[in-house]
Amino acid sequence: MNTNRCTASNDRHFQKDTTLVLWTAMIVLFTFERTVAAANVVVWDTGARAAETTAIDKRSDWKRVPSELFSFEADPPKAASDPGYYGREYSFAGDALVENRNLAALFRSADGKVAIYAKDFGAVGASGTGDSKTGRKIMEIVPLQTESQPVRIGQVRILRNTGDEAAIEVSFATKSAAASAVFILDKTEVIEIRPADGIKGIRLLGSISYGVAPAFIGDDLIYGAADYPSANKVSVPADHLFVGLLEGGNTELVTTWPQSKQIVSLGLGTGSQGNRSIESIDLDNSGQSIYVGVLNAPGIWHRETLTPAFLEKEVRIDWKRPFPARWKTQLLEADVKTTFAFRDSRGEIWRGVPGSYDYPVWFDGDATFFHLGKKVPPKGEALIYSLEGQDTPPGITTPVDIMKATLGRPVSDPILDVTGRNLRTHHRRGGDGVHRACTCGCTEAIQAVFEKGDEVTRKDYINGALGDMNYFVQCHVERIDEYMRFADETIKFLEAQQSSNPELKPYLENLEQIVQQIPQEYNVQKENMKSASYADELTRQTLALTDKKDPKNLSAYMDLLKAWRGMGGSQDYVVAQCHMITRKLAQEAGYGCADQPKAVDLAMEIRSRCRKILRNPDGYEIWANY
After folding, report:
1. Phi/psi at 145 (5° precision)
2. Which of 175, 248, 278, 279 is the most buried (most CB within 10 A)?
């Protein structure tokens, strides 16, 4: 009896184990069938080594690599139930290609390059055949090598292939060294490159018209090969993000990295000056992950040549924005490169140094307009591009979206610095005070009272307006003092660096000459800006006119008005000059290190100092969200 019970029990356990194995096999196969039907990421085996000219949309001899290799067996359910089949690795007969709805990556073993193709439209089909319009090859990726040697790809291993993500480990080899990296593609436009043994960084090869090192406080650094006619390499002080504008205007490369001390350099082509392009982006990041995003849209960036025909005219250009975003360009204002975001309508602005002029760029529906004049002249070229969204529809990705997705909020937020882009207030009482809270606005409001002869009955109103105006003056003076401290500290820093870096002395002396302009402008206008005691005396004299009604009060007040505005206008000018000089310093620090790799760290330090002082500008320095 006991033996029979044991036998029956064993039979039941055997039946349960068999059932469990069969269910497991069915689940595995069901998962596999669903992956085949709706894969977002597909891995292919080309069956033969691919060449540079291989047409990747012709796949009759290619084999799709399934997520589970049981399907290759004669009896897939049986194989799935047998642990002896588990852990099998796929062996490529040819080269590997991984694609999703946005791009395709071909791992060419013969020449050791990873070729990236942008999809024109569509997605990977349900049958796994992929989009027939894979688009053109936009770049190639190779590891950075310390010496120039032929490279080939040896072993290619699939680390992960789920239908939503593929991780491919690639071994690169030269005659003297071997290295490896992991390439990860998911459903997005981004490829993660995770260097492993022997790789410190990567090189992106492509035909790049311009490179952009974004600065969300201040002005972007924009690099073109034509700006460096005798250089072969350009060093860039980029901060976690770099954007390459590819030839044709329809594609952008977005590269991000988590490490703050990234070394970025651009390799320039050897063509004639007018036809030179940036041929490579080198990212030496000491073995940390690098992310490369591909953004594709008709007219995603545009280059407009600014001819004399633009002068003092409203000019509609042919380019149309492909989607809503925060589109911008750089133009010369007072000989300083200045960023102008496209507005939704034409209008006039006022700036402390150049004064009033028509805002130079705007949209009118689908049309794009320029209006340039003597204060913002038509010189050189205007590049139109966007880095971040603004009423951008879902499904459209911007470079900032890629930065947030790849680096996360803790790294991205300080770079974007949304708080620092807000204007500081000079309104003492908010909406309850004089709405145009400046010396011109407050004196104008008080003037209206005197013109009506109501200065005695509205003494409290005048007193409040004077308080608002004094607060505005105080804010201006404090802001100018901030710039003066910044200039003093920066000059001392640059002088110290000249002693410790004598080979960089010309570069540092040039920067020092720029920042010296801040105290120079201050000293020139010091007498006109007056003092706090001078403002107190003007306040006392203005209030004295409210003690009794007198026909001469208006005339006396108009003299005081001129004194108020003379003082305020000088302060307006100085604070705006300080802002422009600081932005020029940041630009020259970035561009000046282009041919001096040793100066890149100093450039990043100077630009960091500039970014800090430019945070939360006054409205008389620049517009909001600059």
Report:
1. -115, 145
2. 278
Q: How confident is the model at residue 79 (pLDDT cuts 50, 70, 90)?
A: low
AA letter at 6: C
DSSP of 302-317: EEEE--GGGBTEEEEE
Q: What stretches of 50-96 show up as alpha helix (H) in DSSP?
A: 76-81
**C-alpha pair distances (Å), 406 with each of 123, 164, 244, 398, 521:** 22, 17, 17, 13, 44
Helix (H) or strand (E) holding 416: helix 409-416
Chain CA centroid to CA 624, Å: 18
Q: For residue 271, which amino acid is it?
A: G
Cβ-contact 32, 69 below 8 angstroms: no
Contacts of 343 (CB under 8 A, 6+ apart): 359, 361, 362, 363
Mean pLDDT of 262-280: 84
Place of tokens 């436009």: 189
End-to-end CA distance of the chain: 89
Q: Which two tokens stand for residue 53?
A: 């000219």
Digit-coded pLDDT (tens) for 293-323: 999 999 999 999 999 999 999 999 999 999 9
Measured at the CA of 97, the angle between CA 91 and CA 102, to 5 degrees, comes to: 150
Report pLDDT digits (tens) over 219-270.
999 999 999 988 999 999 999 999 999 999 999 999 999 987 778 999 998 7
The sign of the torsion formed by the CA atoms of 350, 352, 357, 358 equals negative
Rg of the chain on CA atoms, in Å: 32
SS3 19: helix
63: Cα separation from own chain's centroid: 39
Task: Indicate the average pLDDT of the chain.
Answer: 88
Extract the tokens encoding 304. Answer: 């407009």
Name the residue with tokens 């590819």. Answer: 246
In which element (H, E) is residue 569 found?
A: helix 553-592
Paired with 385 in beta bridges are 328
Residue entry with tokens 């409040």: 464
Nearest to 601 by CA among 488, 491, 489, 504: 504
SS3 content of the chain, % helix, strand, coil (to 5): 35, 25, 35
Confidence class for position 174, pLDDT limits 50, 70, 90? confident
Q: How high is the pLDDT of residue 596?
A: 94
- At 482, list the tokens: 């901030």
Domain assignments of the chain as residue spans, ordered by start = 1-197, 200-297+396-416, 304-393, 430-614
| CA-to-CA dists, residue 136 to 56, 249, 539, angstroms | 10, 13, 70
Q: Percent of the chain at pLDDT above 70?
A: 89
Rounded (5°) CA angle 315-321-325: 120
Buried b (16+ CB within 10 A) or exposed e, 484-505: eebbeebbebbeebbeeeeebe
Question: Residue 356 — φ and ψ, nearest 5°?
Answer: -85, 140
Q: Which of 109-113, 129-133, 215-219, 571-575 has the lowest mean pLDDT?
A: 129-133
pLDDT tens-digit readout, 402-448: 999 999 999 999 999 999 999 999 999 998 999 998 999 999 999 99
